[in-house]
Structure formats: C-alpha cells, structure tokens
Amino acid sequence: MPSRVNYLKKPRLKRPILIAGLPGIAYIGKLAVEYLIHKLHAKKFAELYSEHFPEWVIREEGSAETLKVDFSSCRPDGLKRDLILATASAQASSSTGQYMLSGEILDVAEGQGADTVATMAAYAMPPREFKAKVVGAASDIETAKLLREHGIELMKGGTIVGMNGLLPGLAAARGLHGFCLLGTTMGGLLDVQATEGILRSIGELLGFELDLRELHRHAVVLPKFKLPKFKLPEGVEEEVSYIR
C-alpha cells in the first residue's frame, strides 16, 4: 500500500508548531502527545497511512485498525500560534522506512505552514547514575539558545534513535527549526514522571499553560493509547547514551 494522507478537514492554522511523539522507551513521547491531545481538546484533521509501518493491525473491540499517523490541531490559551500534534501506535519497521515516514510527516506539517518541529523522547540511565531531569537537543544555534534560556540542559553526546530523533534532524534540512526534549528514565513499561517533566518543559518553552493534575490518573486510559511490552535494548544498563 503506497503512503497516502486522508484529510478529515482542512484546518486554517497560524504558523503551527509540529509536536510529535512516537512509541519508544517507557512510552514517554507517545504518552506526552496523547495527553496534550486530551487536555488541549485537539481535533484530528488528517491520517497518514504508510507502507513503512510494521505488518500488523490493532485489534480494538472486535475490529482491526490499520496503523497510521494521526494529526490533530489546537491553539492553547496564551499561545498565538497553533499546534499540530502527531502520534501513532508504532514507528516504521526499518531504517529506510523511518526516514521515509519521517519525511511524510514533515510534508504534512510543512503543508500546513509549520516552521518548527518538536519531539519528545527518553534518555535511558542506569539506576546508580539516575537523576530526574529534562535534556534537549536542537537542530540549529537559535533553537539551542532558546532551550538554554529556559533552563534545558543540552546533550553533550549520545544518539537519539528512531523517528523522535529523525524528525527534528530532517527538519533542519528543510530550513525548519527542530528540537527534541528527552526525559531521563530507568526504563520500564511506562514512565509517567519523566513524561510530566517533559510536558512541563514544553509548556514553559512555548509559552502556554498546561494542567498536569490528570496525567497520572489518566495515563493508561487515554484514547488510542496502547501498552505493548517495550524492553530496553540489551546492554543499556552500561550504555547510558542510548536514547529513544
């Protein structure tokens, strides 16, 4: 099946910022975007279907749902720009597919006038070195300065694996601003505490209020949120630079 975008409606957005979060370690990015959709009452406007997703469907109440990227939009109180919130139940299943699907997501965002791409991910740390914090990486000097001004420590090394890293990286090649916020985690199925730190940081960074009181209570019942088991890669206890 070739990739295609199904527009449910054509929104009129003002200089939107793309915020994406896809499944990864401790589901930090996925949970963060799902909570934004829930709390900001974002409305879905498009679905991206792609042949680069894994070869399975999601079973839900007796039906089979094809994997896709969902795009929703909203404008939080206090923000003079719109947000495009993008997430899916899986990342692409191959390196080539991750590049292709990331590019297709950016095509949709650019088509709506986005000039900034933000993602959220995990920074895995071993228990003996763990410290709860949010770190960041930026695709350009201007954005890196913005992160530092808001107290976000910039990464000094390591790699951001997968589409949560590729999206802001590839955005730079298109002349867009890009950054990734990463919450430190020791792994596990779901790290709500790390997600809370990232959400607090992105609200402060972009300048909008976000009520986080419901995050822990609703973490596992948010719409479209699945919890398949996701293990840390072998050896991650010793390799703290593994980020996803």
Can you give the mean pLDDT? 87
CATH class: Alpha Beta
β-sheet strand percentage = 25-35%
Question: How many β strands by DSSP?
Answer: 13
Oligomerization state: single chain
- Shape-level CATH architecture: 3-Layer(aba) Sandwich
CATH topology: Rossmann fold
| Unreliable runs | 227-243
Shape: globular
Helix content: 25-40%
Write the layout of secondary structure elements.
Blueprint: E1 4-7, E2 17-20, H1 28-39, E3 43-49, E4 57-60, E5 63-66, E6 69-74, E7 83-88, H2 95-111, E8 116-124, E9 134-138, H3 141-149, E10 153-154, E11 159-160, H4 163-173, E12 177-185, H5 192-206, H6 215-218, E13 242-243
Parallel strand pairs: 2-7, 2-8, 8-12, 9-10, 11-13
Antiparallel strand pairs: 1-3, 3-6, 4-5, 6-7, 9-12
Helix pairs in contact: 1-5, 2-4
